[in-house]
Amino acid sequence: MATIERLRVYPLKGLDGIDVESARVLDGGTLEYDREFALFDADGDVLNGKRTAAVHELSVDFDPEDSTLTVEPPDGDSSAFALDTKADRRRAETWFSEFFGEDLQLRRDGSLGFVDRRDMGPSIVSTATLEAVASWFERMTVESARRRLRANVEISGVPAFWEDRFVGEGAPAFEVDGVRFEGETPCGRCVVPERDPDTGEPTPEFRERFVERRKETFPEWADEDAFDHYYTLMLITSIPESDRGTEITVSNPVDLIE
């Protein structure tokens, strides 16, 4: 049976995610705490993993109860910031500016988050898909694949690439806890999945191997015309306005809607 295996949100864009047992769908159609905070440079450009591999040097945790962000750099000397307070947000800006070597401003968006696709919602992947991707590369673990691909919702009890069926002409939708998820677009990948999530080191010939194996294993139930290329994995969805403001929860069933 299809089930929510994991919910993961990324409170500070570009850095580590946290697992949550339930997640509220915000009015903007995204999940609460996901990319709620982001760092911007003086030109207004966001700092993320596409821009610098230095993000992999940081270990980050976040406590949703009090919005405390804990950051541990390579030297192991961690710092904590209560991001609900203006003073600690300023301290965090100073800390990150010194670490990344440029002036950065910390911003917050509690209604939508700083997601890349502002008109879309949570990202979806199946556990079997992560297992398949991990098998394509020597010594890659499923957790490494999970951290490289950075999905919000992970579904178990379904075959690999199950999420591919939800885009294209006549595609179905699915429902969790009365919340309808509609497929919007397959997720074209960037440089981030190529890197080891702990060290930032690139995996040799990652993209070439990925594309080769993705093409070989592309499922017959998917609409190939809905995919621009094979360096694509994960589904970006949207949630109707009528279903926002409610919660989805780990271990609850996923129902296909034809």
Overview of the molecule:
A hairpin with an 8-residue loop joins strand 1 and strand 2 (18-20). The protein is 17% helix and 28% strand. The protein has helices spanning 86-100, 127-135, 142-149, 206-217, and strands at 3-9, 18-20, 22-24, 37-40, 59-63, 68-72, 79-82, 105-108, 123-126, 153-156, 173-176, 179-188, 232-238, 247-249, 254-257. It is globular. With 258 residues, it is of the alpha+beta class. The two termini are 17 Å apart. The strands form 4 sheets. It has an 8-stranded mixed β-sheet. A 3-stranded antiparallel β-sheet has the order 5-6-7, with helices on one face. It has a two-stranded antiparallel ribbon with strand order 3-14. It has 4 helices and 15 strands.
Features:
single chain; 258 residues; alpha+beta; eight-stranded mixed sheet; three-stranded antiparallel sheet; 4 helices; 15 strands; 17% helix; globular
